[in-house]
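Researcher: Please translate sequence to structure tokens.
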Amino acid sequence: YHPDVSKEAGAEDKFKSVNEAYEALRDPQKRKAYDQVRAQGYRPGEEFRPPPDFGRGGAGGQGFDFEEVFGSDGAGGGGFSDFFEGLFGRRAQAGPARGPRPPGDSRAKVSVPLQAVYQGSSVRLVLNGRQLDVRVPKGVRPGQVIRLAGQGEGGGNLLLEVEYAADPQFEVDGRNIIHVLPVAPWQAALGATVSVPTLGGAVDLKVPAESEAGRKLRLRGRGLPGTPPGDQIVELEITAPRPINERQRSIYRMLANAFAEGANENDG
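Model: Translation complete:
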């Protein structure tokens, strides 16, 4: 880098820096200080953090001033020369450059329709004014978490804790589904085949004769998916239709009389 030989731009400044380093390290005391710094594992570009007892009055018990040995930058604030700033990093630096802190995860609870849980389908949910299309895993359980990558605050993940939305037709008991089925008195008394709603669509159910209110019938495998899948429990509820004409009212009177006579016969 000698300015009389090299034609590179800035060769003179580089020559001065190299010469400065040579002069500094030729002195045994300065060389010892340099070796002490290098022994701490410092590398070019890192922030210079002196080891314990290093600096004024601390190098081997001698009155040693690092800035005095290696020079000041002449900027009024003391410091290292340009050469040693490049070697150890400028004191103004806060150490090696670090990227932005990764965003944290955001959490929220969402109510998921039972139909989506049964089928494993996508649903559109509104969360804090945002519309989200969420793929609901088939058979997901309450308390489990659906992870939406990059959908949280600041680009973090959005963790959705699942809870089941209330359903007008079904209640949940573990993986079983409970449905209350209204049946007419004659269906319960004489037996009948009736249509029953399930999460997978309507199916036929045979109501045994002489069934009483509250009797429970089981549709195997018609509950929530799982290993094994749940069942649908059908609970019978006997309801009497309201008569809307004279003929129906007459039939009710006949029915009442017939049961009254039967009760009297049993008493006799």
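Researcher: Any highlights?
Model: The chain has a mean pLDDT of 79.
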